[in-house]
Amino acid sequence: MIESAQYLAAIPAMRLHACGTLTGSVGLLLEATGPDLPLGSLVMVEDRGARSVCEVVGFRDNRLLLLAIDQMRQLAPGSLVAPLHLTFKVGPWVLGRVLDGLGRPLDGMPVAPGGEEIELEPPSLDPLSRALTTTQLDVGVRAINALLTLGVGQKIGVFSMPGVGKSVLLGMMARGTSADVNVIALIGERGREAREFVDDILGAEGLKRSVVIVVTSDMPAPMRIKGAFLATAIASWLRRKQHHVLLLMDSLTRVAMAQREVGLASGEPPTARGYPPSVFAVIPKLVEQAGAMPESGSVTGIYTVLLHEENDTIGELAKSVLDGHITLSRELASKNHFPAIDILNSISRVAHRISTAEHAANRARFVELYARWRETEELIALGTYHQGTDRRADEAVAAHQKLEAFLKQSMSEQVSAGHSVQQLAQAVS
C-alpha cells in the first residue's frame, strides 16, 4: 500500500485556474464575478459552445468589467469566465500574410508551426538607448524624398480629410521604400477598402515583403486597439532581428476612437471633445515604439490621421508626439494634383540632420519659390499682377510649371531618393 506522501508525489502536477461567471451586461460592458485579474488581462467567456475573448477594463464592487474583443454571440448570464493568456508566435512565415488583430490568418493559409512567442503589447523603450536619426529613408515619392526628407527610425503623420488619397500615398511608399520589411496596419477600415488596398494599391510584389494586419470597422473596439499593438509588436520583433522596418498605420484616429469607446464604456469621464483621459495615454505609448536602436534594426513609423475639423483633438495630439507631419490638401486633390501634399503646411523635423548642405539649400529655394507662387496666383486671378513690379514674384511665375511638375507623381511611378534630389536641383536651377 502506497503511503499518502508517495501517492501525492505520484500525481501529475495540475494547474487549476480560478473561474467566475457572467453576471450582467449593459451596452458593450460585461460584468463578471472573479477571478482576481489585473487591468488589461484577457478572459474567455464560454456558454454552451459560444465563446468570446474579453479584456478586463475595470472593476466595480469586487466584480470584473469586461469588453469583448471577439463578437458577443449567445452569451447568457452564468457563462463561465476563465483567465486566458494570449501571445503571438511570430516568425519568418508572417511575410506576405494578412492577419487579424489577434494574429489569426485572414488569407486562408495556415499558421506555420514554431516561432518566437511575443507579447501583444511590447514594453516601452529606454529613450537614452535609441540611436540618433542619421540616415535617409527612401520612400519612392519624389516630393517626400526631396522636400520632406524622412529618416530611418523617424515617426511622422499623414494628415488629411477623408477621400484625399492617403491610402494611395501609403501604397506608393510601401512599394517604393528602401526598408527591408513593411508592417501595414489597416485599423477600422471598410472591408471593401482593405481588400482593394491589398490587391490593387499594395499589389503582389509589395505584399511579398509585407505583413498586413486588418481589423475592419465592424469589429469590437478592443480588437481594433489590439490590432494596432500587434502590428507594432511584430515591427519591434523584426527590428530585434536586425531588419529595417517601415510601419504604416491607417489610421491613428480610428485607434483613438476605439479607445474612446473602451474608456467611456468602462466609466471614464469624457474630457476634450468627448475623449477620455486614456486616449491621451494610449497614442503616445503606441507611436513611441518607433525608432532606431544601436547595433540593431529600426522601425520607421508613418501614421495617418483623419482630420474632421481645423482644430482636431487627435490631430493636435498626434502633432505633439510625432517627428513631423505630411498634410494632404483637398484643394490640390480637387485640381487632380496627386499626391496632394501641401508642402507649405508640412514639415519633417529630422530633415536637417540627414540632408547635405546643397540639398537643404535647394529645398529652401523650392519652398520660397512655391510660397511666392501661391501668393502671386491669387493676384493673377484678381487681375492685379503686373510683370516687372516684383522680381521674386516674376521668378516664381516663371518657375511654377517646373515646380508643379516636380510635385506631381503617378501612383505607379517610383522615384529613388538620389533621383529626387537631382530633380529638385533641376527644378530650382
Helix count equals 12
Gross geometry:
elongated
Biggest sheet character? 9 strands, mixed
Work out the helicity level.
Answer: 25-40%
Summarize model confidence as the mean pLDDT.
87
Give the N-to-C terminal Cα separation. Answer: 99 Å
Residues in β-strands, percent: 15-25%
Q: What would you report as the Rg, rounded to the nearest angstrom?
A: 25 Å
Task: List low-confidence stretches.
Answer: none
Q: What's the number of extended β-strand segments?
A: 19
Q: What is the SS-derived class?
A: alpha/beta
Give me some keywords for this one:
alpha/beta, elongated, six-stranded antiparallel beta barrel, nine-stranded mixed beta sheet, 429 residues, 19 strands, single chain
Q: Helices, strands, pairings?
A:
Blueprint (H helix, E strand, L loop, with lengths): L3 H7 L9 E7 L2 E5 L8 E6 L2 E11 L2 E6 L11 E5 L3 E3 L6 E3 L16 E3 L17 E2 L4 H6 L2 E2 L3 E6 L5 H11 L4 E9 L1 H18 L1 E7 L4 H20 L3 E7 L1 H14 L13 H9 L3 E2 L5 E9 L6 H9 L2 E4 L2 H5 L12 E2 L8 H26 L8 H17 L9 H12 L1
Helix pairs in contact: 3-4, 5-6, 6-7, 10-11, 10-12, 11-12
